[in-house]
Design brief:
Blueprint (H helix, E strand, L loop, with lengths): L1 H8 L10 H5 L17 H25 L2 E4 L1 H5 L2 E9 L9 E8 L3 E10 L5 E11 L4 E7 L11 E4 L1
Parallel strand pairs: 1-7
Antiparallel strand pairs: 2-3, 3-6, 4-5, 4-7
Length: about 160
């Protein structure tokens, strides 16, 4: 069924089926018994590496597809702030995907409130969160921006940090 589906839907696709000797190498003794030790050969290693690359490529593509667009305002950039890693989490009060955990890096002393706006994939605002932050130059840390529990930060959302 797999080959028929490939023929029908992907006629230019190539299919390679490795036999056991290509996967596990040549045996060390003949005739073989249950105790015969087999070794991996180059073909088996290539198949293993290729499978790993395919899985990692798919995972990377899915991760990029689900990323939010974090946009730091010019004013905050001028004040020496940079963003790092972020995650979207659930709050403890029953909200789903309504907490933005954002890693901020401070190149200058900072003492001000930061407002974060969540926009859906169509550019409509879905929520705001504001926290006061005091940090010294050279410091960095994670900050939790908690939105109303009805705010749901979607995949591909735009997040404006002001």
């Amino acid at each position: 069924r797999i080959l028929e589906a490939m023929r029908k839907h992907c006629p230019k696709a190539k299919f390679y089926q490795a036999s056991s000797s290509e996967m596990f190498g040549e045996v060390e003794e003949t005739p073989q018994t249950e105790k015969t030790k087999e070794t991996l050969n180059e073909g088996g290693e290539i198949v293993g590496k290729t499978a790993t690359e395919i899985v990692e490529g798919i995972k990377e593509g899915v991760d990029k597809t689900l990323e939010c667009d974090i946009q730091l305002s010019q004013e905050l950039k001028d004040k020496g702030i940079k963003t790092g890693k972020y995650t979207i989490e659930n709050d403890s009060l029953g909200g789903k995907n309504n907490v933005l955990v954002l890693y901020l890096i401070f190149e200058k002393d900072f003492n001000k409130a930061i407002t974060v706006k969540a926009m859906d994939k169509n550019g409509l605002e879905t929520g705001r969160s504001k926290i006061s932050i005091t940090a010294k130059a050279g410091n960095a840390g994670y900050f939790d921006f908690k939105f109303d529990k009805r705010t749901y930060i979607e995949v591909k959302s735009k997040i404006e940090v002001e």
